[in-house]
Structure formats: structure tokens, C-alpha cells
Design goal:
By secondary structure, the protein is mainly alpha-helical. The protein has two helices and no strands. The radius of gyration is 24 Å and the shape is elongated.
Length: about 55
Amino acid sequence: MKKKNQSPPVKIRKAPFITIFVFLVLGAVGISLGEPSRVLEQATRICLSCIGIG
């Protein structure tokens, strides 16, 4: 006996997974190169110059 309301197989989109993977790889490369500390250093310098201390 055949089912009348058989749904088609669900297609999984690959683009979101590829995009997330690329961003994770780029984030890991940035962290390994020490970018977070450099960004924090520059942000501190800019903030201190904005308020007239640096």
C-alpha cells in the first residue's frame, strides 16, 4: 500500500554552512596572529585621545 501524503526529501542548503566555516577559519587566523590585542590597544589609544588624556 502506498502513502498518499509522502513529502519530498528535504534539501539541505550548503551555502550557509560554507559561509560559517569560512568565517570561523578567518577568525581563527586572526586570533592566531594576535589581532584582538592589537584592536584593543588601538581602541584604548583612540578613546584616550578623544577625552584629551593621550
